[in-house]
Design goal:
The strands form two sheets. This protein has a two-stranded antiparallel sheet with strand order 1-2. Strands 3-4 form a two-stranded antiparallel ribbon. Helix 2 crosses helix 3 (118-138), helix 2 runs antiparallel to helix 4 and helix 2 packs antiparallel against helix 6. The chain has helices at 37-60, 64-104, 118-138, 141-155, 160-170, 179-193, 196-201, and strands at 2-4, 11-13, 22-24, 31-33. It is built from seven helices and four strands. The two termini are 52 Å apart. The chain is rod-shaped, with a radius of gyration of 34 Å. The protein is mainly alpha-helical. It has two domains: 2-60, no CATH class; 64-105 and 137-201, no CATH class.
Length: 203
């Protein structure tokens, strides 16, 4: 058990059988009566308060980059999740288009009598058909990938311009990057990126 010297205030370990007896402080050499359980509780509270103060000390010492990273952690993770959801949805649409194309096959172009470049016309028609089939699933993959990478850079406090454009891109509903969640997290990211301390923390 612990007690404190009333002369120098040093915390001392004392056996329970010595409580109430005269003991000598090894630090200052003064003799005193070892503390009662009430005094021990008070000393324990004081020690706990010191530990609490020490544990909270790192929070007060957070640097500007650490504070900026903490402020951007929420919107960056939200943008990454929204982009990942958009990627999964459009990959699913792409897989459905591939299955449908495999079942139906690529159709032949309508006949045009008198056309000389029939083979190039046929290839152009089939290429356009494939683009129209795969376009709804492939094109939205690009902004979703850009938003995911930009959110990762935002979390690492790299490339402020790219991070800001990523937040703007996520807010555009026509691109389908997570739809409403992407819009909300994009607004949150833009508001946070406008803070001077956050802007200054970027490399």
């Amino acid at each position: 058990m612990t007690t404190s010297c009333p002369n120098c205030g040093r915390q001392l370990l004392v056996r329970e059988e010595f409580y109430g007896r005269q003991v000598k402080c090894p630090a200052c050499g003064k003799a005193f009566a070892a503390g009662t359980p009430g005094q021990d509780a008070e000393a324990h509270d004081s020690t706990a308060g010191d530990e609490l103060e020490q544990s909270s000390e790192p929070r007060r010492r957070l640097g500007p980059r650490a504070r900026a990273r903490r402020a951007l952690l929420g919107p960056a993770i939200g943008l990454m999740v929204s982009a990942a959801v958009g990627l999964l949805v459009h990959l699913l649409l792409l897989a459905v288009s591939l299955v449908q194309l495999a079942q139906r096959g690529i159709p032949e172009p309508p006949p045009e009598p008198g056309r000389r470049d029939r083979e190039s016309y046929r290839l152009g028609y089939q290429f356009g058909y494939c683009c129209s089939s795969f376009g709804p699933g492939v094109v939205p993959l690009i902004p979703a990938i850009v938003v995911f990478v930009g959110a990762l850079q935002m979390m690492r406090l790299r490339s402020y311009t790219f991070s800001y454009l990523t937040a703007i891109l996520a807010m555009l509903p026509c691109l389908g990057v997570g739809c409403l969640p992407g819009l909300g997290f994009g607004i949150w990211a833009v508001i946070t990126l406008h803070r001077d301390d956050v802007h200054a923390a970027f490399r």
